[in-house]
Amino acid sequence: MRISVAPNKQLDDHTPGSVYLCQVKENVSCGACCGLYNVADASRNALESLLIQRTVLFADIPRDMDSILAFKTAVEAHENQQRPYPEFHHCPFIGFIDSSNSRVGCLLHPLNLKNNGIDFRGISYYGGMACRSYFCPTHYQVPMVYKEIVREVVDDWYLYGLIITEDKLLNAFFSLIAQKMGHPLKKEDILTHHRRVAAVQEFLKLKLNWPFRSQEIPEANYFFKDKLYSKPHLNGNETFANTSLFAPIFYELCSCFSSHNELIAAENILENIIFNIVGSDF
């Protein structure tokens, strides 16, 4: 996991897709590629409690191989090892890397103060090279401006890690905004307008509170391209849902509509959000 206090041009210049997305602000970072949300209970409270316990435990162990491996054994023995995606490794070395427990990161990273500049990431499941070189599909598949907007408007680690890997969802939403605006989207189109920022934030939070989300789908997003776990086709009133302007968004939000009225309600939610951005009816 890569560590930085805030986005800066040097990191952007050396990142695929030219926008650094991993450790971006004091309270905004992503551990999704380390399986952060691939746990039995991925709710905010449960995950926060789990990470705090790890962080406190790791802070007190000696920095030697045996002690670090003993930490791993203790964590795995204490925590529920049931995984929504069994083939998606969950790293036991994810914790909080700040004093306020608001920024997730790698406890093995050399910039962890108690590691005294030593890089222990080679102990991890995929090894240090994977930690340094892997970038999620969003880096490659999502246009720069969309990534810059998300990086700026999200203000907490929990939502950020869930939404930033949703490359198709982000593309579907922002491309629709650009279409309605009638020109390619610029980050200034959003970031210099408080109402538009609030509307984008409202949309991104649908990842957490979308009322039509299928209850059978885990919170975690399986974003790898091996297609081991694909999102389900739209269920319920499928004909209507698939002909909706918002069908790509509905699909990426794992929607399941039990009636045509639910579909209309879902469309209204998105129409109101987009109206607050583009300022015109559909």
Could you please describe the fold and organization of this structure?
- The protein has helices at 9-13, 44-59, 65-78, 127-133, 137-141, 144-153, 157-163, 167-181, 187-191, 194-204, 206-209, 238-243, 247-252, 260-278, and strands spanning 23-25, 28-29, 94-96, 104-106.
- With 282 residues, it is mostly helical.
- It folds into two domains: 9-135, no CATH class; 165-278, no CATH class.
- Strands 1-2 form a two-stranded antiparallel ribbon. A two-stranded antiparallel ribbon has the order 3-4.
- The longest helix is centred in the C-terminal third of the chain and has 19 residues, at 260-278.
The coarse silhouette is: globular
> What is the CA-atom radius of gyration, in angstroms?
20 Å
Number of helices: 14
- Structural domain tally: 2
What is the first-to-last residue Cα distance? 42 Å
Could you tell me the number of beta strands? 4
Q: What structural category do the secondary elements indicate?
A: mainly alpha
Q: Please mark out the parts with pLDDT under 50 across 5 or more consecutive residues, or reply none.
A: 1-5
Helix coverage percent of residues?
A: 40-55%
Adjacency order of strands in the biggest sheet: 1-2
pLDDT averaged over residues: 91
Q: Tell me what portion of residues adopts beta-strand conformation.
A: under 5%
Q: Encode the helix/strand succession as letters.
A: HEEHHEEHHHHHHHHHHH
Largest sheet: number of strands, sense, barrel closure: 2 strands, antiparallel
